[in-house]
Task: structure prediction
Amino acid sequence: MNQLTPLFALLLALALFAAACGDDSTTETAVDPGGTPSGEPAEGESVDDDATADVSESEAPADEVPAESVLANRIVSINPTGTEMLYAVGAGDMVVAVDSFSYYPEGTPVTDLSGWDPNVEAILSYEPDLVVMDFNEDVQSSLEAAGVTVVLITAPAVFDDVYSQIQMVGDATGFGAEALEVVDEMRTTVDELIADAPDASGLTYYHELDNTLYSVTSTTFIGAVYSLFGLTNVADPADADGVAFGYPQLSDEYLVDANPDLIFLADTLCCAQSAATVAERPGWDQLSAVENGTVVELDDDIVSRWGPRLVDFVDSIATAIESVEAG
Result:
């Protein structure tokens, strides 16, 4: 099998984690095209049943808010999405260290800390009173035993999960009001983009995670974002049984046969893919998206993270749909 790119490895790890942590009790949150996206898609609003996701409860629910407000003074973030949320709500001045992938926004205190394999000793060396991280029970327990508050930022299922996490970060840092403003602005913008977009029912799309043709289905957060517009995902039949956890690997033959109206490339940074490289693939020059110029080059980071810049991803989809309608 081809070597996995960091982005796909992360997404697959999150999918496997969600499956492992699932139990008999689940909560269902619908993606609302009109007002409060909640997660990965979010992440209430209401949409088609296809855009609804079951979120398995685990010991660390994504929307778990600390019992009391923590007015932090020194924050360490080893979660790139969490880092973006911290800066968006206004808590950036309190961030003393971030992991090596938390390079947005510009000027973050990037270190060699790892979010993949967190080192408690290394984290504590920055003397934090609050740490933002993904779920890791052992690391969380160790940090809390040392008197550090932990805020968990885990993969969303619907847009509302995204909003809840931003609000959680704001509340935990004393920027609750600012977080509410960020959420309100995101909701308003997303609602407007969806309302103003042309009717996309009947249009098909392919979302590319990397140049080995891994994709996403409508059961993922990314897929749910596309579902807000009524787009049909050509990857869905490839993982109808869910064995790939919503991340099937397709083939050139499969995609040429599916002939999507739109192609979205989320591997422009990791794998140097572009509309030009896609057109050079065997048989791809015959695809409608290539012939009609509807191959959309996305920013990998924006698509793989679900902070405030998620609005930019939604905007890219809306713009692409408009280009198809204009053509």
